[in-house]
Specification:
18 helices, mainly alpha, two-stranded antiparallel sheet
Amino acid sequence: MRKPQGGWKVALVACTASFLALQPAAAGAAVAGPASAGPSPQLVLRSVLDGVSPDKSDLASLASTFRSDCTRKRAAVQNMALATALADIGTQLSDNASARALQGFAASADARSVGGASNFVFGAIAAGQPWAAVDALLRVHQLGPRDAGVLISLAGLVTTLGMPQQGLALLGAAAKLPADKQTPMGIDYQAVALNNRGYALLELGYPGEAEGYLQSAEQRAPLLSEARDNLDAAQQYTWVMGGGGGQPPVIADPPFWREDQPGDWTTDSDGDAVPVASSIFDLSQGVAWTPVHIELPDTPAQGEAMVKSHYYTALDNKIDKQASLNASKSASLIPKVRNPNKQTAERRSAVWTAHNTDDWQPEVRPLYQEYNSLSDALTNAYNGSLNPQKPSNDADDQCSSAPDYDTCFAKVCTSETADEQARWRAQEAGVVNAALDYEGADWRYETGVAANVTDPADHQLQIIAAEDTTLT
């Protein structure tokens, strides 16, 4: 088996929609770790899943390597059946991973479900143990053999491990199966499949043929930086194979998102430009918010009783306690997030930008503005017509010369307070209902954004951040 050299890039997608579907209750769960497999190849995995990706200096170095030493010969593309490809991959897995590691994963809880095995894949990739990821992907395929996305991901991975023929066979089989359209960053499976096919052809010595697939992948998914990287490599390879005459191809910066298209931009409250998240991300995986129920007193007496029973204090303390717990969870997760380089950092930065500009996004903005409008109206009412001190002041004025001040004060103040309470409650209920509508839309949006992050630790950080935003 020829050891992979070079630095070409593979794109992986989420193995199943079940990993992308958010599970907020498990936000503090431990990040799954990989099995102890064989040594990693020289080729660093290039993954859409917040793995690692090259910067321009990496590409320049790669181009220099191609120009000085381009001896790769074409290998005939084999018409390989899926069963044969899987058998070959299984053999290589046995040769490159320890029996103990394979047995350990097989006996683990992760191997019992698609979601568990999928999580394990990402932990293995982040830890630089691709054979462990192969093992888990094979298990995901066993559990869901008609999921095209699994075969597409596995194809890219095994190609990086020196098995491009098997990668093409997996892609051929995947083309006959349905694939979930919801993937990280809105990059669909077809774009990833095109990239991985171009990558496999590049490995087999067909840079010209690879270019067409890679150009299609880049056009289909501008955020798939790996397609641009592979296209640069293919162009360098073609130039060297052609004799290297004239100027070498320019290494281009990959596009990050569609620029200046209608609907790609909005503005914040200061009029500054804000990218519309739905033009960059797939937001369809957002989930429903379970609101914190807050009782409003129906009468002044009920309100007094609620204060004496510390109802609101207890509720406030409960939210503070959850915020403190979230802060502790976040602190434990931050060291587990794999430090990205340029391209992954851009993707990650875009996710946080989407979080931080949530109130100005089309999905949230009108509900946020309605909530603010009603809240401001209530605040203004407290400073004007809705004056909590008015019943007491009126009672004092009216009863100052009464024979029985206390009896008079209680009668006047209680009557006016009841009227004021009725007006307050109607207006306060409007604010609460608007807040619930806003919270629900914001949580669905925030969790939809978080679904685009597939580094397990960072994904959990996004969920915690969304919960903190909604609670406060």
